[in-house]
Specification:
The structure is a homodimer of 303-residue chains.
Chain A lengths: L4 H10 L3 E6 L4 H12 L3 E7 L1 H10 L8 E4 L3 H13 L5 E4 L4 H8 L13 E8 L6 E4 L9 H17 L6 E5 L10 H14 L7 E6 L1 H5 L1 H6 L13 E3 L3 H14 L2 E8 L5 E2 L7 H18 L1
Parallel strand pairs in A: 1-2, 1-4, 2-3, 4-11, 6-9, 7-8, 7-9
Antiparallel strand pairs in A: 5-6, 5-10
Helix pairs in contact in A: 1-11, 2-11, 4-5, 6-11
């Protein structure tokens, strides 16, 4: 069970080396990340995109391209479709966004012929290692689904539990997050979190334990549960997966974690046939490498 | 202008010493906080409550009660009304919650005869000093109003701007927080944040600059605004007041700040005739003392 990114990386080293298909690889930050992922044995990459620009950028960062396969496709849409097809056809194990807008990238992911669509709802998970927390935290959905319905939330839980399983967490604890840890009929978020908890009791959600509503302190700290008299909860301060009521709460907490909490993170899109990495330009090289590592353990599990 | 709690405390020392009325003071954490506030010259206190218990607890923590006026009222409701009346009548400058439930305490605050009600909407603000941020951050409303309307949000801004002014921040920058920094018609929170920004442009909100929607990174960091091409915003990464769309987002971020961000905080209720301190049992002595200091500078301003 990976409790931090160091352990996740050592888990990767136990897997066969994975191959990453990169859409529009002509981007310095992306090339730096795939270079590091290659050097550290996490994944090799097939670089799809503008070969001339890729070679130019690689030269400027002293990157030896002899280890990398390059497929020259200059057009952005065509490059994304060519890259995703590599994953679709099994020539690569995971798919990384390069220098193209998120909309075009997602279109390739969802392409009916060469994409990675399944019958599952797509969702996003960001995995954090935080100072003071002795386990990985899976924050979801903080970037993709704006206002998930109850049904969407079940899908998000199922997607995220699969990721947690891949990280070696056998029975992840899911916390339905809210402002308070008791059901308040005037707060629909608390009612819905409790619904999800009941669904797990009834066997409609499996492979995990779901509890809710839980406030941030009660989800993370047993001592907070003790102070508030709720140590008898199903998830008494030991949540692995933090399920947010909507994207406003999720994203605001997520960016607080990224910018203000001493932490490391990596993130992937879930519910796809193979792991998809949708990091943003603002993400550091470390975040991109952590995301590739996360994708690698998920790819191993999906095999 | 106070940029951290040290500067806020030195601001307090420039004010005349304030008097705190405590409702149901028979609580160890509360007595420790008022003892420290007294010793540090922040405020003296009138302790209303069960005198026998107050003396018992004081003895157990070696607290010399000769500096404190004690008013013996054993009944909780009566004690709260007696304590709030001291503030209502001008015998004390601010009002602190002791060992009683929030509902009873708030009932005394809102009491028509002896309470501290004004025609303003009540709201709550939590003030943070965070590592890596060179100014105080005012998070609101994270604990009191569950789903503020646009009108409520105007009231929250006005209440909080008054607190920021009291802390010496002449023209506080208010960020209407959301998951994204651009208006998305499908996200009502972003539309409402933009509405508030327009209202400030039109002079309907004064004494501050309001911008929105802003994501957490764009509200806090000029470099994030630069990367996202929005350095021309009214609040380009230098927000003082973070206005949350609702209590789910606000409270989840607030508790992340408290528990995971290296930080100090203090909080008060606003919109009342005099500052009201509504700290919870879980708050540390430091939080309570910071809150008393914050209340003291506000009381000085309201004089």
């Amino acid at each position: 069970m990976a409790k931090n990114f160091k352990e996740l990386l050592s888990k990767v080293s136990e897997c066969s080396k994975k191959t990453l298909a990169v859409a529009c690889a002509q981007d310095q930050a992306v090339l730096e990340a795939v270079k590091e992922a290659n050097e550290r044995g996490i994944a090799s990459s097939i670089l799809v995109g503008d070969e001339e620009k890729i070679r130019e950028i690689a030269a400027s960062i002293n990157m030896d391209l002899s280890d990398f396969k390059i497929i020259n496709v200059v057009d952005t849409v065509e490059a994304s479709l060519a890259a995703v097809k590599l994953v679709h056809d099994g020539e690569a194990d995971m798919y990384l966004k390069g220098l193209l807008d998120t909309k075009t990238f997602l279109k390739s992911v969802l392409d009916k012929e060469v994409g990675l669509r399944t019958d599952k709802t797509l969702s996003h998970v960001c995995v954090f290692e935080c100072e003071g927390i002795d386990r990985l935290l899976f924050l979801t959905d903080v970037a993709f689904l704006p206002y998930p319905t109850l049904e969407d939330k079940v899908a998000i839980i199922n997607n995220t539990v699969e990721i947690a399983h891949a990280c070696g967490i056998e029975c992840p604890k899911v916390a339905g997050m809210a402002a308070v840890e008791v059901v308040n009929p005037k707060m629909k978020e608390t009612v819905e979190a409790f619904e999800l908890s009941k669904m797990q009791d009834e066997g409609k959600i499996t492979g995990c334990i779901v509890d809710g509503p839980l406030s941030m302190d009660c989800a993370l700290y047993p001592h907070a549960c003790e102070e508030k008299g709720c140590l008898d909860r199903k998830v008494p301060g030991n949540a692995d997966i933090l399920l947010f009521p909507d994207i406003q709460a999720g994203n605001l907490v997520y960016k607080t974690f990224v910018h203000l909490v001493p932490s490391k993170n990596g993130n992937i899109l879930t519910g796809t046939k193979a792991p998809v990495i949708l990091t943003s330009r603002a993400d550091s090289c470390e975040v991109k490498v952590n995301s590739i590592a996360l994708a690698a353990v998920v790819a191993e599990k999906l095999k």
